[in-house]
Amino acid sequence: MSGIFIEGNTPLIGTVTASGSTNSASKLIFAAMFSNEDVILNNVPRVQSVMDDIEVIESVGGKAEWVGNNTLLVNGSQINSYEVPLEIGEKYRLSSLLAGPLIFRFGKAFIPKYKSVDGRIKPINRFLDTWESLGFDMEENDNKIKY
Known about the structure:
Largest sheet: 3 strands, antiparallel
Order of helices and strands: HEHEEHHEHEE
Strand order of the largest sheet: 1-3-2
Distance between the termini: 53 Å
Low-confidence stretches: none
Shape: globular
Number of strands: 6
């Protein structure tokens, strides 16, 4: 039988600080790009996937700045392109989440297709199905999706 056995008659005493969720932070960072105002996100973990999300939004002019230990200030007011650069977007699966703010701002978005470097398939069909259900037309080629 596998498991964890704890022995002793000593109560556990102390504190644990729960870290923020990477999955939630990513969605909030991209959602904040709808705003022209500063958006403060607290308890954002400083992990590589969050840094990747920041690189994606900065590639189109979005702002992201660490203003505290795990506090991120983001702002979409300076977004100046509806096209995520190929060399950035194809590396990060979640770059497709930027389609919403870009469509909101420009009426269109060009997002590179994600290309897995480790051979694992990480589908984005949920994102595409969502846009299609909202009535958006999409065109795909080998490298990009045009919304």
